[in-house]
Amino acid sequence: MQEEDKLPFTDHLEELRTRLIRCFIAIAIGAAAAYAFKEVIFNLLTRPLIEVLPEGDAIIFTGLPEAFFTYLKVSLLAGLLLASPVIIFEIWMFIAPGLYKREKWVMGPAVLLSVLFFTGGALFGYYFVFPFGFKFFLGFASESLRALPTMKEYLSFASKLLMAFGLAFELPIFITILAVLGLVTPAFLRKNRKYAVVFFFIFGAILTPPDVVTQILLATPMILLYELSIFGAMAFGRRPLGATDDEDEEKDENQDAEPAVKSDGVAPKEDA
Known about the structure:
- The chain is mostly helical.
- Helix content is 71%, strand content 0%.
- It starts with 8 loop residues before the first helix and ends in a 15-residue tail after the last helix.
- It is found in: Cell membrane; Membrane.
């Protein structure tokens, strides 16, 4: 792009403001449409819990405006989901002019795949983790203890878990992009696998409620996705011409074993 074709900073801000307004309008329209089906959406969201609740039990609300504001939040989340194609399009149209041809080749498919992986993570949490987790939590009920989940608490709990699993499933996309840009290699990923496992459990403890079960249920698929990321880095990662994974690994080991060099460029002598 030539210098005279570049837009000034104020024009970029104006374009950003315009695209943000379009996104907010799309979210508002989606939320208004979703509010007409608020009961259906909330019933669908609470189905995993309803199916494991004891017969006769139900989700309750303890405050007079709680049901209204919960339905409002559900409609807003559904509107955000409905408006996601518009949001992704506006973001892409804003950043695409500043990307090189190779970066566009990477980011275009990555955006589409990230949506699919995020959806897959949320569905995994909804169909596999929710039934098992809710059944585990309700197992603490007894003759003297009874579970009375409220609408507000359930929506907060469920939305956080769905978001956590959606973000966790973005891991292969993120690592593959780093490999395409040449920032990581398959040898590096294999070498630091043990640190990644520790990070996944810490990540699960932060994003999930404070219990070991959901932490493990989030960390376990992330470990499997990390292994998938290594294959993605091997398939699409940038590497020197003719280099192999064994050569990359040997290079990393040689760098770790390379002796320290003094500031004058002379390596320190070994002790006799």
